[in-house]
Amino acid sequence: MTEQTKLLTELNDRSREVFRRVVESYLETGDPVGSRSLTRTMSEKLSAATIRNVMQDLEYLGLLGSPHVSAGRIPTQTGLRMFVDGLMEISEPAASDRAAIEATVGGDPDVGTLLDRVGSALSGITHGASLVLTPKHEAPIRHIEFVSLGADRALVVLVFADGQVENRVFTPPMGQTPSSMREAANFLNAMAEGRTLSELREHIARQIVLRRQELDRLAADLVEAGLAQWENKGESYERLIVRGRANLLGDELDLERVRSLFDDLERKRDIAEFLDLAETGDGVRIFIGSENKLFSLSGSSLVVSPYMNADRKIIGAVGVIGPTRLNYGRIVPIVDYTAQLVGRMLSGRGKG
């Protein structure tokens, strides 16, 4: 039992109802809630003074806060967490929301285009920013080439057997030369064909031990660094699709904080942490404020759910990010439904 859930069980019915109505009103309007407005909505007839006393008790418990001296109350991060864990009512997504998500899977676009459409639809119906972590491409490799873009940037071009081409930017080890890059590419191509990236990485790890003397030190470093970018947690190529940034600008997240959030996203070398967040629990997970360790922006919430392939293996995730004043009861089932739909769709294609 979490601390918040334990706290909830200790509240009497009156305190629980006052707390729930404050949170629901705040999530709907974004405004502090006063005792006088609650007298019109409570199930039992109470005076404003009685409700004010209950709200003071809830504030003492750390569940409500006062943004201004004379204002009403708003839920704290602890209060929002307690509401989400113990009081929030979740229903099925509305038919119109389901239809908007399902409309993205028509036709037969490639997986990247399809997931981009899903992200745009998810952003549109939730009025937040959507995040989609796409699956790794696991078709066999046909050809690999390295291209220097400068002293600290290089491009790896991957041509897959199914015709797909991917260009990924990474930071090469210091001192690389065009000849060492060609040597590394030749080394990889000699054993890449017919293997997926995962299989190639395992094979290369064994081969580097056996054949390190055949490569000069710089080329070996490039092989190791390149593979670390492709398959390890440090991969820096764009597997994270972000849509709907502008939706956050008109809310209580100001421009600088939104810019900070997306600077974080673009800087993140470890975007796989997004998937880690989803993998540590079943179904939808909700991160409120500073619980959201993926971003430095503490005034945001992240609702995220993993999706699986036909083998029930987690291969990606979808999520919505917005201010802490999200309509969680509506957004949670939408994210859950989207993740399940994406999983079924990719399983049907035999991807993942």
UniProtKB/TrEMBL annotation:
Tell me the SUPFAM superfamilies matching this sequence: GAF domain-like, Winged helix' DNA-binding domain
Q: Where is the Heat-inducible transcription repressor HrcA C-terminal domain?
A: 114-332
Q: Is Transcription found in the keyword set?
A: yes
Query: Taxonomically, which superkingdom?
Result: Bacteria
> Pfam families from the xrefs?
HrcA
KW Repressor (keyword) present: yes
- Record keywords: Repressor, Stress response, Transcription, Transcription regulation
Q: Which family does it belong to?
A: Belongs to the HrcA family.
State the NCBIfam families in the record: hrcA
Role noted for this protein? Negative regulator of class I heat shock genes (grpE-dnaK-dnaJ and groELS operons). Prevents heat-shock induction of these operons.
Name of this chain's protein? Heat-inducible transcription repressor HrcA
Please report the organism this UniProt entry assigns to the protein.
Sedimentimonas flavescens
